[in-house]
Amino acid sequence: MNTHSKTGAAAGHTFGVIAQAILVAAIVALTALALSPVLGPAASIAGVDMANAGSSASSVWIESSSGARLANGGLQFNDPFDVGYATRERKPWAHAVCFPNASTVYSTTKGDGSVWGMYYSVYAGGPQEQAFVAGESVDGNWASGGADCRVDLLKFSSDYARSTVLASSSFTVAP
What we know:
Blueprint: H1 2-35, E1 44-45, E2 48-49, E3 59-63, E4 75-76, E5 80-86, E6 93-100, E7 105-106, E8 116-121, E9 132-133, E10 142-144, E11 147-156, E12 163-174
């Protein structure tokens, strides 16, 4: 009889340890999923909140300096352009970034693989008015040719430490 109760106690203890292990594994898995940059709602890439990307009624596009919307490929290297947008957010910014393609002549890529990128406030009276010029930069990294580009409409936090992507649009710069 004594042996039977020891066996029952051992089985009960083993079951408890297994149940605890399963519970801990489930908590770890759910935490990893919630923090995943691909799947979780807390996604963040280099201070940019991607969790809300495209969730609002915002949109963004490329315009000529005269204000006409440009079709994809409507820009050439060194062309000036503006960013048009629609959003309910206050004080939006735009970030245009270009990545090399077969025609790009450049020195090096940045950490994100880009050859060029610029930020400007796009709202009236913003602190850094638009002055986008495809390829023009201080470092002269992108020397000539075309590129595959994207423009993001952003909302910065009050301390400018984080940004949320409100809308994105791809475009091509021709050589």
